Amino acid sequence: MPxxxxxxxxxxxxxxxxxxxxxxxxxxxxxxxxxxxxxDEDDRIYALDDTCSHEDASLADGWVEGGYVECPLHxxxxxxxxxxVQGLPATRDVCPHRIEVRDGAVYLFPNEAP
Amino acid sequence: MTLPPRSVVIAGGGIAGVSSAAALRVGGYDGAVTIVxxxxxxxxxxxxxxxxxxxxxxxxxxxxxxxxxxxxxEVRLLTGTAVTAVRPGSGAVELSDGxxxxxxRVVLATGGRAARPPIPGVDSPLVHVLRTVEDAERLRAAxxxxxxxxxxxxxxxxxxxxxxxxxxGYEVVLxxxxxxxxxxxxxxxxxxxxHDLHSLRGIACVQASVESFAEDGGRLRVQLAGESQPRVVDxxxxxxxxxxxxxxxxxxxxxxxxxxxxDVGQRTSNAAVLAVGDAARTRVAGTLLPRTEHWDxxxxxxARAAATILGRPVPPATASWFWTDRHGLHVxxxxxxxxxxxxxxxxxxxxxxxxxxxxxxxxxxAAVAVDDSATARVARxxxxxxxxxxxxxxxxxxxxxxxxxxV
Lengths: 114, 407
Description:
The structure holds two protein chains of two kinds. Chain A is mainly beta. Chain A has a single domain (2-109), classed as Rieske [2Fe-2S] iron-sulphur domain (Rieske Iron-sulfur Protein, 3-layer Sandwich), CATH 2.102.10.10. Chain A is built from two helices and ten strands, in the order H-E-E-H-E-E-E-E-E-E-E-E. In chain A, the strands form two sheets. A six-stranded antiparallel β-sheet of chain A has the order 1-10-9-4-3-2. Chain A is globular, with a radius of gyration of 13 Å. Chain A starts with a helix and ends in a 5-residue tail after the last strand. In chain A, 46% of the residues are buried. The model of chain A has no long low-confidence stretch (mean pLDDT 93). Chain B folds into three domains: 7-113 and 243-309, FAD/NAD(P)-binding domain (3-Layer(bba) Sandwich); 116-240, FAD/NAD(P)-binding domain; 328-405, FAD/NAD-linked reductase, C-terminal dimerisation domain (Enolase-like, domain 1, 2-Layer Sandwich). Chain B is built from eleven helices and 26 strands. Chain B has helices at 15-26, 51-54, 67-72, 133-143, 156-167, 183-186, 188-201, 247-251, 295-309, 373-384, 391-395; strands at residues 7-11, 32-37, 75-79, 83-87, 92-95, 100-102, 105-108, 112-114, 127-129, 148-152, 171-176, 204-207, 210-216, 219-224, 231-233, 235-238, 242-244, 260-262, 273-275, 280-284, 287-288, 321-326, 329-335, 342-348, 351-360, 363-370. A five-stranded parallel β-sheet of chain B has the order 3-2-1-7-19. Chain B has a five-stranded parallel β-sheet with strand order 9-16-10-11-12, with helices on one face. Chain B has a five-stranded antiparallel β-sheet with strand order 22-23-26-25-24. The longest helix of chain B is centred in the C-terminal third of the chain and has 15 residues, at 295-309.
């Protein structure tokens, strides 16, 4: 399937301000959860499952800085690259997804390891 | 040169105690770590007044760390056991089961107990408090056969309990002698608005103090000051603060002054014993600060205690941060609103999302953000970095506040 090799075009880089994120609906990604595209201050973009593993909050609304995203509710921290939890109150990792940036567009490869 | 400590015993498995253990391991400490706690397992407490109370989440959903975390981090967890004495001279830590542990360093993370003020009838089983998982389970069970509930105290815990129970369909009376409660923490305007939300949502708010509780045929008669007749409810919940547990510190001869007195590195008056969390009270440059009773502060205490034990520089204090949830609103407070000389509103007060900033001499000292988490995060960093700010820029929702950090 061409989609598997090209990914799904889900956003333009300019849709995501540095240090912030946007959520891509699961109806587009075909995943169990929405997927958060998160842009670090160095402009690198990462994709993680959007729902915090602690309570019902969108990581796309979180604070992105220094390789981590902080949940907007209680500031649980997750590694942007791996989804590994780095700070309470969450205790479980969130799933990372592979993305590619081509010609200013973000292509998502749901459920593929980054 | 003194040898680095090889064994640490942490008395208390709340957020402060567990954070201390975690920070030791993150810092590379490879000696023994033991957490001793009288409860059945370390749980997170913020959900107790919210999703745990409604039954949406249970014990397994609110563990501070899953059991494999303790295994992976080689943290020994002794539950159902209390520390009964700490003897800093010999390093002995005596336990309620008769055993004695040896500790090069002891961390007192003993927290406290919910206050029960000396009101007649306050010890009735129909008068509940909310501090531990066990308290919450007792209350949950009692709520099964209750319709009308009185919540005494409209501070953080009382307001959360009142809002949660109202949301679950209980008839709630919320009593507090102050109007509005939390004025110092939130600023007068936000405190009024938040408190008035209770009445708008259908909670009966009464400005009064409680004179007595009395059981009567399985129900509770509560006499409020200034009322001619007692109010009859099925149960009451007290949310009137906590009493720090400093018994171990007192018997070990450590300095205690309404809390276990510590320095900025969490050291008590005996350098082999540290104290963290709700039980600790910090002295900075000769001045005793008020105790902080917040989740994030307890976690930071743990990080400082670990740094001290490891002989590393202690992380600097950051602006305080706490959150509270009521009636579907997420309220965050950073810094000290009482220190503000003037205030600026971003957005419209009373129409979330909005934030009220507190300023002093051109610097931010506090912010209260309602459903406005990103602004709270910026505010905390603006305070910590002492960035000079202009009021009109803070107030302008079209200005991305994050840009203020890039100066």
